[in-house]
Specification:
The protein has about 220 residues and is of the alpha/beta class. It has two domains: about 180 residues, Spore Coat Polysaccharide Biosynthesis Protein SpsA, Chain A, CATH 3.90.550; about 40 residues. It is built from nine helices and eight strands. The protein has an eight-stranded mixed beta sheet with strand order 3-2-1-4-7-6-8-5. Strand 1, helix 1 and strand 2 form a beta-alpha-beta unit. It is globular.
């Protein structure tokens, strides 16, 4: 079984959309919403058929918290504003059964602007070339591997980058399955596509060069 873990915080605008998406999925799965202390109506809008947890705030904290109660042998981490194909659960299980232990989906932005399409292609190419996947690409892995590597790195930001680096260092590489995950392009359009791309690349490089993660987190707020 696949356990879908969804960290949420003040997601009242998106919470019904993700539930509608979940209701159309095929296969054997459970969905766990990990709330980081929402002050809006997020929790009240989640249907009773899903598990809801109150977790310490922070995406890494919330994902780790959800993994502790997950019943599935495969963990699938999903952003609340993402949309996935109805047969993705079956495709994930198919790749895991082939022997892959960690993977992700093919990223696509919800915009027809050519630069956003290019950004999506670059993100997918990064997975193949550098073996690095980010959270908006729908990371999944065997729970056994998740426990082995110590879960999601406890960082306020860049937790997905650090996770990818730790996996790569231990010779675990992402299998990118043939299934799209559509994510919001809102922050790019609101803050400027090229400005946002440049700043995100700059912050990633600074993290790799050892800049204090709390300083990076403060600066990252400007591009969200």
């Amino acid at each position: 079984m696949v356990s879908i873990i969804i960290p949420v915080y003040n997601e009242a605008k998106n919470i019904r959309k993700i539930q509608d998406n979940l209701s159309k999925l095929k296969g054997n799965f459970e969905a766990i919403f990990c709330d980081g202390g929402s002050s809006d109506n997020t929790i009240n809008l989640i249907e009773d058929c899903y598990t809801v947890l109150n977790s310490p705030k922070g995406r890494a904290n919330q994902m780790n918290y959800g993994s502790k109660v997950a019943k599935g042998d495969i963990l699938f981490f999903l952003h609340c504003d993402s949309k996935i194909d109805e047969n993705v659960i079956e495709k994930i299980e198919e790749e895991i059964n082939k022997g892959f232990e960690v993977g992700c989906l093919k990223l696509k932005f919800d915009s027809r602007i050519i630069w956003m399409k290019i950004c999506g292609h670059m993100s997918n190419f990064r997975v193949k070339l550098r073996h690095i996947a980010f959270g908006d690409q729908g990371i999944f892995m065997k729970k056994e591997l998740f426990d082995k590597i110590g879960g999601i790195p406890n960082l306020p930001i860049m937790e997905d980058l650090e996770l990818s680096l730790r996996l790569k260092n231990q010779k675990y590489y992402f299998k990118q399955i043939d299934s799209e995950i559509v994510t919001s392009s809102r922050r790019f359009l609101e803050n400027g596509i090229f400005k946002t791309m440049f700043k995100m690349q700059k912050l990633q490089l600074q993290y790799l060069c050892g800049r204090d993660i709390n300083e990076i987190n403060e600066e990252y707020r400007d591009v969200r």
